[in-house]
Amino acid sequence: MITITKSPEETTELAKEIAKKITSGTVVLLEGELGAGKTQFVKGLAEGLGIDEVVTSPTFVIVNEYKGKDLTLYHIDLYRLDGFPSEDIDIDEMLEDGVVAVEWWEKDRDFFRAYKPRLEVYFKILDDKTRQLKLDWVK
Prior knowledge:
Layout: E1 2-5, H1 8-19, E2 27-31, H2 38-48, E3 63-67, E4 72-77, H3 91-97, E5 98-103, H4 109-112, E6 118-125, E7 131-138
């Protein structure tokens, strides 16, 4: 599915709706250039999962954990890494009780493509506020 959002708020609202369809064990993979809206999308996922905490990019800490009503959201950012540090971070354990959202997942495509169900979200900047999002569900 391809959709257009015309503001950060619309990106948040889209992700809130998607969060209603997400179950424990889902990986959400986010790809797009800096400023494309990946973290904004994760903010919407968090809201949709009933998380009241302020969501920030985990660029320097690699993983942020947010407890929701029913699920925990793990937000991973690989921007500063060459790939996923699977020896340091147990994604399988995270998926037992939660959802994992990964920014810059393309740095380790083969690793993440092994996970199902997953949602791959591709962001394209059309102008200052407008984004094209391509959403691919892989069951």
